[in-house]
Amino acid sequence: MGQASLEWWANREICLEKYGIDITVTADEVGTWQATGRHANLLDTTQREGWDFPAPVRVQTSGLAAGTSPPDPE
Q1: Is pLDDT larger for residue 72 or for residue 40?
Q2: How many whole angstroms separate alpha carbon 51 and alpha carbon 59?
Q3: H-helix or E-strand containing 24?
Q4: How confident is residue 34, by pLDDT bands cut at 50, 70 and 90?
Q5: pLDDT-above-90 percentage for the chain
Q6: CA-CA distance, 66 to 74, in Å (whole number)?
Q7: pLDDT value, residue 53
Q8: What percentage of the chain reaches a pLDDT higher than 70?
Q9: Could you give the C-alpha distances from 35 to 2, 11, 13, 47, 54, in angstroms and in order?
Q10: Cα separation of 63 and 43, whole Å?
Q11: Closest CA to 26 of 38, 16, 18, 34
Q12: Cα dist. 60→7, 9, 15 in Å?
């Protein structure tokens, strides 16, 4: 298990919220990755309200090898 962040962006320049998450990533024999995560800390009322409506979720991944870290955002 490791730590990551889940970010909610309005556009390329405005980050609305950033949550710490605990994440577990596994790979099978053919290299297919699977990740599961949960909030690292309890959300406050305002943060929970942000999750009360359906919204499209886009997961951005990179082609990182196991054990590497993503580059810092520019």
Answers
A1: 40
A2: 16
A3: strand 15-27
A4: confident
A5: 3
A6: 22
A7: 62
A8: 69
A9: 11, 25, 26, 23, 21
A10: 30
A11: 34
A12: 10, 12, 15
